[in-house]
């Protein structure tokens, strides 16, 4: 009744591909941290809260795009090798989405807002 899906590639044949894809995915996550700090440094200097928030939207979209590319690499790895421990690696990678998820608190922390600006964001 059950059909076992055989992996497309075996670990003995193409282990380099496995390590490169996993390494590239986690390298993407580390690039997100560095790149977002560089992009946010320019917007922190602006005086208007609205302009800073507009820049933050652009940075959040770049973060999401880079993290999604890493997610696609890990999905490809899971498809090619079909190993259970790769699902654990993917779950660990998903924690980066939680770390960089654009929320009110994340916005305040990234833009280093003053207390009065934080009140505006949180809506009192």
UniProtKB/TrEMBL annotation:
Superkingdom of the source species: Bacteria
Entry keyword Membrane: yes
Protein name: Uncharacterized protein
Record's keyword annotation contains Transmembrane helix: yes
Keywords associated with the record: Membrane, Transmembrane, Transmembrane helix
Listed transmembrane segments: 16-40, 61-79, 85-102
């Amino acid at each position: 009744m059950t059909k076992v899906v055989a992996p497309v590639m075996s670990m003995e044949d193409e282990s380099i591909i496995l390590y490169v894809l996993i390494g590239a995915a986690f390298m993407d996550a580390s690039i997100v941290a560095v790149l977002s700090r560089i992009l946010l440094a320019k917007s922190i200097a602006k005086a208007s809260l609205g302009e800073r928030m507009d820049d933050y939207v652009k940075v959040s979209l770049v973060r999401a795009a880079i993290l999604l590319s890493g997610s696609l690499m890990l999905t490809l790895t899971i498809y090619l090798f079909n190993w259970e421990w790769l699902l654990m690696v993917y779950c660990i990678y998903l924690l980066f989405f939680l770390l960089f998820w654009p929320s009110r608190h994340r916005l305040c922390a990234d833009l280093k807002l003053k207390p009065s600006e934080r009140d505006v964001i949180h809506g009192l």
